[in-house]
Design brief:
Blueprint lengths: L1 E5 L3 H11 L4 E5 L2 H13 L6 E5 L7 H14 L9 E6 L4 H9 L4 E4 L4 H10 L9
Parallel strand pairs: 1-2, 1-3, 3-4, 4-5
Helix pairs in contact: 2-3
Length: 135
């Protein structure tokens, strides 16, 4: 599985990498701009991401704007909705408005920080990307 972790906080980025590296190859981006660049490159190389874990609140370009642009790139590339990359939004805020906006923008799921391995693995399993072993 090919995974993109988009998180401006170094510690959170490393935690997610440690958790997810057992399940696939992880690339990392600091903000929405880097996420779009990485996503576009993956499409050009014909090696698209299976999963993106993206923070909502980041500098330069937030996660919701980045997600909107990623969905636009998919449409432009002719990727059918059912084949879109699965996106889990992460947030430090238990804010229903941000969550609803993320889901409207095309996120498959969201997780409120702090992120635990079990919570993340369970969410990814719900998306059908792999089966949780309860580890």
């Amino acid at each position: 599985m090919k995974i993109l972790i988009v998180e401006d906080d170094f510690t959170n980025r490393k935690i997610m990498q440690k958790i997810l590296s057992d399940y696939g190859d992880c690339d990392m981006a600091f903000d929405g701009n880097e996420a779009i660049e990485a996503f576009q490159q993956s499409l050009e190389e014909k090696k698209p991401y299976d999963l993106i874990c993206m923070d909502i609140m980041m500098p330069n370009m937030d996660g919701q704007e980045a997600l909107t642009r990623i969905r636009q790139l998919e449409k432009k590339s002719g990727i059918a909705t059912r084949n879109e990359v699965k996106v889990i939004m992460t947030t430090a805020l238990d804010d229903p408005k941000n969550v609803v906006n993320s889901l409207k923008s095309g996120a498959a799921s969201y997780i409120v920080k702090p992120i635990s391995k079990q919570k993340l693995v369970d969410e990814i399993s719900k998306l059908g990307l792999f089966v949780s072993t309860g580890a």
